[in-house]
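DM between two lab members

TW: hey, do you still have the Dihydrolipoyl dehydrogenase entry open?
JB: yeah, one sec
JB: this one, 504 aa:
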Amino acid sequence: MAISTLARRKATTFLSSRFLYSTSKYSFSLTRGYASGSDENDVVVIGGGPGGYVAAIKAAQLGLKTTCIEKRGTLGGTCLNVGCIPSKALLHSSHMFHEAQHSFANHGVKFSSVEVDLPAMMAQKDKAVSNLTRGIEGLFKKNKVNYVKGYGKLLSPSEVSVDTIDGDNTIVKGKNIIIATGSDVKSLPGITIDEKRIVSSTGALALTEIPKKLVVIGAGYIGLEMGSVWGRLGSEVTVVEFAADIVPTMDGEVRKQFQCALEKQKMKFMLKTKVVSVDTAGDGVKLTLEPASGGDQTILEADVVLVSAGRVPFTSGLGLDKIGVETDKAGRILVNKRFASNVPGVYAIGDVIPGPMLAHKAEEDGVACVEFIAGKEGHVDYDMVPGVVYTHPEVASVGKTEEQVKSLGVDYRVGKFPFLANSRAKAIDDAEGLVKILAEKETDKILGVHIMSPNAGELIHEAVLALQYGASSEDIARTCHAHPTMSEALKEAAMATYDKPIHM
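TW: and the structure you got?
JB:
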């Protein structure tokens, strides 16, 4: 059952040498700061999203006098207010409606009719958001984090000017300033988002009517999730994507199965397609499209268009240029392995620095950054950050895809197990998907895990832990898993990687 000595040695070396995206020319000595008794803070965090509020709480827990500045007026950032949380609320509600329409009768639960109460669905979503934002404010009070509501911009490496939401202005001083302002919707040339007929993810979370025809521009995580929500509620959904594939970062084999699953749900895809223009002159919206490589143009009509072409770091208007903070062409702040910018005392985390634009990655950044400021050692390994698409079935992954492993020239094995052979999945009549494990051939060390299934976002964390500690596929295969559970599919895929599965 024990992992091989070679694999452990590799894992130990990897864990001890991990570092963040950085620019090697930046290297600063850090001193631990404590409250001086004046109005100066040890840590000032600009931004109250998942990275910012977590950093603020952790700083306070480490004994540092801390202030968090948030322009929205409610904590939680894009994720909690108009992103991760409300989208998951609608994904769950729409899934319940879809199940009531299509699956309940198979389980002996029958209705004479079922209908959508959209205002009630939106109210449930809004209640979840408000409860959670108030919860973070409670955590600030518990941990004695000072909370300033307003737009903060840097005056110097130790001063932040805040235009408060009540119209005043105040100066917040800090020995260390952490920029955690997150990201914003990426716009497309010639397309104006009005949050009514042409919407971002924010507007897609607040539609007052179910559109008959919804066009989604972009086949990434957010576009597929929001398309899934409105598709379940009755919209005819067409996804337009410039690239040749949906979710290009996903393992190729899993991606193909995922697209098939979405097509079964009547989601249409127009890949290798470019949006040339959008016309809102009439009652609806007309999109002019052409092949990505050029060719004849076509017209696609919609009631609502969702622009979901990615996100960009929110770093403009913060005064970075005024104090000389260096950024790259994309506007991301360049930091060293301690999250320090080229300006001593100024740090950055989350979506404003290179790396995955994910809430949980930002949280890890925030904790590690504050630990460095406090004189401790922090770390984040971006290779171990899981990604999840919260459709149904969900798709979750961690580590390398098969394409990445091949490009590295590593000899590897693949183990797969379908949920059609999993007893729990069959019992609940929800067995679409698979588990796929990639392991190094010589050492059996796991390189990547990809899961498509109901609740894949929960199942993936066993794999994350395995990769984090350099486990082999045999380690998972020889670990007892409760029966009947969906997680047994991961065990069987591990068995298929190093030997043979039992139930296939």
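TW: got it. The longest helix spans residues 118-143. The longest strand covers residues 146-156.
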